[in-house]
Specification:
CATH architecture: Sandwich
Strand content: 15-25%
CATH topology: Jelly Rolls
Helix content: 10-25%
Number of helices: 5
Bound molecules: 2-oxoglutaric acid
Oligomer: single chain
Number of domains: 1
Number of strands: 14
Radius of gyration: 18 Å
Largest sheet: 8 strands, antiparallel
Distance between the termini: 6 Å
Order of helices and strands: HHEHEEHHEEEEEEEEEEE
Shape: globular
């Protein structure tokens, strides 16, 4: 496939997943985010069980995101799908890869990582506005995260700034706890905006357990605190498509994936980041192209 072909959205009519309409695809392209109702509806119990297991046995990257004196609990952790069977099962057996292919216009869908984000009742801390892309070592036009709550959410839902995936300059990544800048050099980034004060078009939806917001890695997003009386447990799956390539950053990325051995311009190595779907030759090579270059 030539680079030009890789940037051309794939035809959808024959392969589009029944959950995905042309309106979903158009909204995703235009705004960088769209709600997919019921995407994980059959997997809510598994996701909730996986989150419970994750919180009971946090991984090396687990973080508590509150300063002393702040109320509630804001826990997050990522890159646990290989040790939490429910996460792997959901990632491989749900419709997420097919829906991702449709939204991204990509023939292949590759797993980047999983992420758990839990705000207990009475957690006033907001998730800071940020784009995920600057923290990551992968870039492309074809990227997507799916944020899925396993509790009903209203005020504490994900909030995405429409169109921010097309901004010319990326937004300065910061550390969620200290709010320090993530990389030493601040010059190449734009300051973090205040979308409410600046009256930006913010997309947000009340969501039922199993619904998912699909959003481009470059979309500016955040979330309010959880002032409700119930938990706000969320699971994110991060996926990339045909044109995504490894890029270098001015420091350790998040997640870091130490020892990955990739160099600028590589596709993510498929032995670490499995190819979940390959529509290039649906009949003969489902899953068998892992590691090949598109
Ligand atoms: O759950 C949250 O509060 C924020 C989620 C988020 O930033 C993400 O999934 O990338």
């Amino acid at each position: 496939m030539t680079p030009a072909q890789m940037n051309t959205p794939a035809p959808h009519s024959s392969t589009r997943h029944p959950l995905v309409t042309q309106q979903h695809i158009d909204s995703y392209r235009a705004h960088g985010a769209v709600l997919v109702k019921g995407l994980f509806a059959d997997h809510v119990d598994d996701i909730a069980a996986g989150i419970a297991m994750n919180m009971q046995a946090p991984g090396p990257y687990a973080a508590e995101n509150l300063k002393p004196g702040e109320t509630g609990r804001f826990f997050d952790d990522y890159c646990n799908w290989q040790r939490i069977p429910q996460f792997e099962q959901v990632i491989r057996n749900s419709a997420v890869a097919a829906v991702a292919a449709d939204l991204m216009g990509s023939q292949t869908v590759q797993l980047f990582h999983d992420h758990v984000l839990v705000k207990e009742p009475g957690t006033s801390k907001a998730t800071p506005w940020h784009q995920d892309s600057p923290y990551y070592f992968v870039e492309g036009q074809q990227t997507v995260s799916f944020w899925c709550p396993v509790d009903p959410v209203d005020e504490a839902t994900l909030r995405c700034v429409a169109g921010s995936h097309r901004w010319a300059r990326p937004v300065l990544p910061t550390r969620w706890l200290s709010e320090d800048t993530f990389y030493a050099d601040e010059s190449e980034w734009m300051p973090v905006p205040d979308p409410d004060a600046e009256r930006m078009y913010v997309l947000e939806w009340p969501m039922a357990p199993g619904d998912a917001v699909a959003f481009d890695f470059r979309v500016l997003h955040g979330a309010r605190g959880n002032d409700s009386a119930i938990r706000r447990r969320a699971f994110s799956v991060r996926l990339v498509g045909d044109d995504a390539r490894y890029v270098t950053r001015p420091g350790r990325t998040s997640p870091p994936f130490p020892g990955h051995g990739m160099t600028a311009g590589d596709r993510l190595r498929a032995d670490w980041f499995p190819i979940l779907l390959d529509r290039r030759d649906d009949k003969s090579n489902k899953g068998s192209q892992a590691g090949s270059d598109a």
